[in-house]
Design a protein that fits this description.
Layout lengths: L1 H17 L1 H5 L5 H17 L12 H22 L10 H17 L1 H4 L18 H27 L9 H4 L6 H32 L9 E2 L8 E2 L1 H18 L2 H30 L4 H22 L8 H30 L4 H7 L6 E10 L8 H9 L2 E13 L11 E5 L7 E8 L9 H22 L3 H9 L6 H4 L11 E4 L8 E4 L13 H19 L1 E11 L6 H17 L3 H4 L7 E9 L1
Parallel strand pairs: 3-4, 3-9, 4-6, 9-10
Antiparallel strand pairs: 1-2, 5-6, 7-8
């Protein structure tokens, strides 16, 4: 529903602001206003890829000026036309209004709802401002200025009742009409930007939870993680927003759709907030009941009013929300089933050990990088590969790329390496960790750093085997005399300042950190283990020189023959289409196509 809000907010905001042209030039047709609004919307969405970090410093002055202007105009109208309008703050008048208007008065709440919209997107502003700033601004500036603005318009209407259709622009004094028009347009753009940022944030969170197809997310700010740009969603929003603007062509029906979306968003937010208060904050039941009861009374009142507007444009956000709900549910269902299949069909270490050092195949020179989503265990795609092909590379490295919720992962802490099985199997696991701003470049840099970490792991592992207990302790926590560069004198390619590696002889992880200027004292009990490590590093170097192949698994999910028809439609058509149009793993990993080998398997649900 927030995504629907992200479509309707720019449409109604920009269209309302552009409507001021027609007020000052009544002879212009409504088509001109629509064209102007569409041009502004195209410009707004086209500039999203630059991010808001460079122009966000303009948001606060524009919004502050906007509220001060409408507040000042409200004071002017109250003073000029009728100061008695302030009596409307008495609850008696709302009772008389409903009593006099009956059903029409009740359904008008759907339009009145538009006077408080925008609060549902406040969380998007947290990407630009702290919580306290939003709270202070809303209490001391936004709320008072809105009360003055609407009171001033009411005072103006009491003497000019035929201007009700364009009350905002009609109530502006002629001497400042065009400056206010410019400010209103700028404020509409800022408001649209807020809800667009909110939509991007929702998509990113759904993506992190596996509830949305893989799309490219670009972080446009180093200081504020919330400032992101999603290209695919941006253009979808633009097309839908222009379609709504050009399709309805008037503010009334778009307002009905907008009001429906906002009320439902507020209702869902209240229900989720109740769960947070119970499960997370563990508030007292009386506090929870008071908050939920008061909020639901107000929101359900407005919700009952917008139900009468469903056939007058209110159906739009419902259709949009239903479409995205189907997409998200189907994608999540298919992804969960695929991941469960991979988790439950992992290859056991007993099976690997039973194959022997050659894995029952011909071990050809080279290194095979097998990409998998599993951070532990051997994926089934590997057994599928060696079962159907007669050969495998001399060295196999299972690569798992994980994107962490941090800005960047230092180069020296990027790779975690461990060994799978005995040494003569030459099988390793490497977990590559990236922050959301790190670039996974399509060049030899990734391979180089991976192999540097692999060589350091082998060197440290061989030295650990020859260490006494005291030496083992000094390796973990004490500064030493042998430099880190000395550990890699057989490799010579490592340039990172600190390597976060793993010491293990089986499928388990023990992190070891080697600082940049810290030294390691390793007193070997013999030359055997050192010689073994050197031989293995030479072997790895020869395999790397022979060639590196990237093996990428591709598990295809299909509905079983006895599945019901709706499941077949969801899996075989909807999910398959989403998998086809979303970003492929080879693109996400930036794997060179000339060294890419796709291994596919089909899983039936």
């Amino acid at each position: 529903m927030v995504i629907g809000d992200g479509i309707l907010t720019p449409a109604i905001s920009v269209l309302s602001a552009a409507g001021g042209i027609k007020v000052d030039h009544p002879h212009l047709s409504n088509d001109v206003v629509v064209v102007v609004a569409v041009v502004i919307l195209v410009g707004l969405f086209s500039l999203q890829h630059y991010g808001t970090d460079r122009v966000s410093w303009l948001f606060a002055p524009i919004v502050l000026l906007w509220f001060l202007v409408i507040g000042g105009i409200g004071i002017y109208n109250i003073w000029t036309y009728n100061s008695g309008v302030l009596k409307a703050f008495s609850p008696v008048y709302i009772y008389r209004y409903f009593k006099r208007g009956g059903k029409n008065g009740w359904t008008s709440l759907g339009g009145i709802m538009l006077s408080i919209t925008g609060t549902e997107a406040l969380f998007a502003d947290l990407g630009h401002f702290p919580v306290s700033a939003v709270q202070i601004a809303f209490t001391l500036v936004v709320f008072p200025c809105l009360l003055l603005a609407y009171s001033g318009q009411a005072a103006y209407l009491m003497n000019n009742r035929d201007h009700v259709a364009d009350i905002f622009y009609r109530s502006i004094p002629d001497s400042i009409y065009w400056p206010v028009f410019v400010i209103a347009t700028a404020a509409a753009i800022v408001a649209s930007q807020a809800i667009i940022s909110a939509t991007f944030s929702i998509i990113k969170q759904a993506l992190a939870l596996g509830c949305f197809p893989r799309v490219k997310v670009i972080h446009t700010s180093k200081n504020f993680p919330g400032q992101i740009y999603v290209p695919d969603i941006n253009w979808i929003l633009m097309v839908l927003c222009i379609s709504v603007t050009a399709g309805f062509r008037n503010q009334s029906q778009i307002g009905n759709a907008y009001g429906t979306a906002v009320v439902i968003v507020m209702l869902v937010t209240t229900l989720l907030m109740t769960l947070i208060m119970i499960l997370v904050w563990r508030c007292h039941c009386i506090v929870v009941l008071l908050f939920t009861g008061l909020s639901l009374v107000i929101e359900c009142t407005y919700f009952s009013a917008v139900l009468f507007k469903v056939d007058q444009g209110g159906w739009v956000p419902l259709v949009i929300a239903a479409a995205f709900l189907v997409i998200m549910y189907v994608w999540h269902y298919g992804s969960v089933k695929r991941y469960e299949f991979e988790m439950h069909s992992k290859v056991s270490m007993a099976w690997i050990l039973g194959l022997g050092p050659s894995l029952g195949l011909v071990r050809v020179p080279g290194i095979g990088l097998v990409y998998t989503e599993l951070a532990s265990g051997v994926p089934r795609i590997f057994s599928h590969f060696i079962t159907n092909l007669p050969a495998i590379h001399s060295v196999v490295v299972f690569v798992c790329v994980k994107y962490l919720p941090v800005y960047t992962v230092p180069e020296e802490e990027r790779f975690l390496v461990k060994r799978i099985g005995p040494k003569n199997f030459h099988m390793f696991r490497c977990v590559a960790r990236y922050g959301y701003k790190d670039l996974h470049k399509k060049d030899d840099d990734f391979e180089k750093k991976l192999f540097d970490s692999l060589f350091l792991f082998v060197r440290l592992e061989s030295m650990m085997e020859g260490c006494s207990d005291s030496d083992e302790y000094s390796l973990y926590g004490q500064q030493t005399e042998t430099s880190r560069d000395g550990l890699l004198n057989d490799n010579g390619n490592t340039t990172s300042s600190k390597i976060d590696t793993t010491i293990s002889s089986v499928d388990s992880i023990v992190p070891v950190t080697s600082p940049m200027h810290a030294n390691l004292t390793v007193r070997s009990s013999g030359q055997g283990s050192s010689q073994t490590g050197t031989d293995e590093m030479e072997f790895l170097n020869r395999c790397r020189d022979a060639g590196v192949v990237h093996i990428l698994g591709n598990t295809v999910v299909r509905a079983s023959r006895d599945a019901r028809f709706y499941k077949k439609i969801a899996i075989d058509y909807v999910y398959a289409f989403l998998r086809k149009i979303c970003r492929e793993n080879s693109v996400i990993f930036n794997i060179p196509h000339e060294t890419l080998l796709n291994v596919g398997q089909i899983f039936y649900v």
